[in-house]
Amino acid sequence: MFKRNLWKITLTALIGAWAISSILPLKDTPFNDYIKSEASAQVSEFESLMAQASDRVTSGQAPSVFIALKQIGREQRIDLSKFFPEVRLEESLRNVEKRNAILLDYLLQQSKGRLQLGLDLKGGVAFMLEVADEGVGADVPDYEREDNLAKAIEIMSDRVNALGVTEPIIRPVGLNRIEIQLPGVNTKDNPELADVIKKPARLDFRRVHQQAVPGRDATPPGYEVLTEEGDNKDGTTYQRDYFVKRLPEMTGEMVATAFPTMDEYGRFKINLRFTDEGAERFGEVTGAIAQENQGQGGLLAIVLDGRLSSAPRVSTRINGGSAEITGTFTQREAIDLANVLNNPLDVELVIQEQNEIGPSLAADAIASGEYASMIAIALVAAFMIAIYTIGGLFAVISLSINLLFVLGALASLGATITMPGIAGIVLTVGMAVDSNILIFERIREELNLGKSLKAAFLAGHDKVVSTILDANITTLITSSLMIIFGTGPVKGFGVTLTIGVFSTVFCALVVTKLLLDIVINGDLIKKFPMLIRSKVPTFDYLKYARPAFAVSWLIVIVGVGVVAYKGHRIYGIDFVGGDEVSLSFNERPDTAAVRDALEGAGIGEVNPVFQSDFNDDTEILKIQVPFEEGTKVMPLLLSNFPNAGFEVVGQTTIGPSIGAEIQWNAFMSLSLAIVGILIYVAFRFEFGFGVGAVVSTIHDILMTIGIFVLFDRQFTAPMVAAILLIAGYSINDTIVVFDRIREELNGNPNLKLREVINNALNNVFVRSLLTSATTFLASLALFLFGGGVINDLAFTFLVGVITGTFSSIFIASPIFFWYHKGDRKHVEKHQDVKPTYEWTGSSRASE
Q1: Full DSSP string of 568-612
Q2: What is the secondary structure of 697-758 as a DSSP string?
Q3: Residue range 68-92: mean pLDDT, rounded
Q4: CATH class, range 578-654
Q5: The CATH fold of domain 203-344
Q6: Is pLDDT above 70 for 324?
Q7: Residue-range domain boundaries for the chain
Q8: Which pLDDT band, with edges at 50, 70 and 90, does 116 fall under?
Q9: Mean pLDDT of the chain
Q10: Per-residue confidence band for 515, with pLDDT thresholds at 50, 70 and 90
């Protein structure tokens, strides 16, 4: 038995070790402490450098030790890598300043905890960017300003996403400003981040004068002097001047895409791919230059934002639609340059404000969310152990390993953990119990047939494999489309869900089976006790299908009607924007108390957050409220906090953080997922099953939204992910029912279709209740003990669990029945359904 399971034990151990190594360390280590601990050569000299760096920070010459070390290395020409021999740098990179930048960036990243917290839990940095006056003009109409701002926001979103920052907030403020909030980012250690974000990135291809040389000849008409910088072999830099034509031969508008690569010497460069028009023009330009100077060719300068990047020689016409930018780029510089080239700004952006922002959730809200999550997991664990005893204990172990794998994968991808994300992970774990319940219930059925424990274990597990795979593959279709077509929170949720699918399947089919195999086939247990041992019910579900179907769709219609009636009032600030009031104060108030005071007065959604200016550490309180409610904030605060000394610093309107593009991408992802599920289920099962799955999924989404709005709740950014998770839960549950119907069709060739469906529903009824109960318990704990957005998420899941279970029985199955007109022969015309038989007798358990 051990030999048979050796590969499972080894694989699980290896993945577990990888996950743990990916997660650790859990918390950030102060950079000063981390870099001291990592220096292993010439330690005394490095301690002296650290003392100099600390003095610079104390005197205000540098904002952090990180920047101070960069300054010292540049000024004193010190290669800091000599203190860290374990960190391998490219030998071909001789430039000391660039080597130090790569080294310090690496050490800074390594000092961070692997699972970074989001804006709601930890805070981050905020930029307020303003379109420069010369980029807009005073006579530009408002609608054109809005269009320009919308385009700039789209470009900013692409740039920030390319930087690897998870769940950023990017939204318009007024008609000429953009607010960007980045979780877990410190610009004191990343001062170049601001430049990457606002960089216009104008790319020109210009001719270089072939005869005149700066310093020897006068500047020819129409030319200017530009300087190229490069590295010498000894690590020093050189400068070379050229006369470069002022007017470009072609611009970056003719570049289709840019991406960083490495040459054979390990040096970074940027490859360009031109548009069709750009490829033709580039061929013309290089062909003309190649014919100059008696056929010896000449130089073509690549100029980025007015600076000469490189001036490669052109000796022949270059066709093929591609080119490259070479230079002394670090990896980060190459990535950033390619990023801004792919997303060039038409207008210049100026940073008006640069602030450090505190957590958007108050300490008590964070604590309540963590408390609710722990209670949710404890309830699920206790429920499983109470119902399935030893099997439940193994399920809890499997789920713990599942959670470890999910967190390890998220950490390896650099994911940012938010409070809604924590809730989503908790609920995903609750839903993952489904696979274990499927296994245990199948074992129960085989035991009820009189089989031995070993035979029941093998037969039950084998029968449930296809069900688990089908249920998770349909969820995988949904999550994959979220990744492909989604952006922002939609894409992030798709990644988490995809990881959860693979981890759940592995833990159910490998880990749980491994644990059961050890105790059952190892004769460590003789019985598999379960609390519920009731007989299979014989309820006629289809008898009540029509009235249940009618009532449920009536609720859906009422909910949709309320949504239509309320219109934009169902959306929170994340979707429609609002007023933002900036306040100074003498006594720092508690954000939870501020939120409670304003929401208690009927203002609606309130989002208070503290911001600190980097230059003078002045702290202000920014409060976001719905439109036209900003004027009510100050009077309410003065009456509730008379000693706080509030004064209004400013008030403005803010745009939505969930823009039209994200909403459209979420809708497209969900729509395509439904089509994909229809195709998969039709191929894997039969088209009637696909119709039932799609109708029940749409039903669950609409009912959840309708009931959410009926209870006077507003949609916020995390609700996009919540609705998508409801869709995944609904599909998962429906596929399990359909898989049992298909099995009953194969195993009972003489039964009518009505009897087949009722038998299948009765056989999965207990499983559906138990699965729903575990997810319901997790949601209930989050609902009762979690506040704010956690409460909204939990409420949505409570509704979704009930509607998902209901629709699998009273929507999906009846749709399949009615689609085939209640006739089994109609099913068999669409799919070859033949009876299968199971041999009974000796078991493989004796192996």
Answers
A1: GGGB-HHHH-EEEEEEE-SSPPPHHHHHHHHHHTT----EEEEEE
A2: HHHHHHHHHHHHHHTT--B-HHHHHHHHHHHHHHHHHHHHHHHHHHHHHHH-TTS-HHHHHH
A3: 84
A4: alpha beta
A5: Gyrase A; domain 2 (3.30.1360)
A6: yes
A7: 29-110, 123-200, 203-344, 365-566+661-830, 578-654
A8: confident
A9: 81
A10: very high
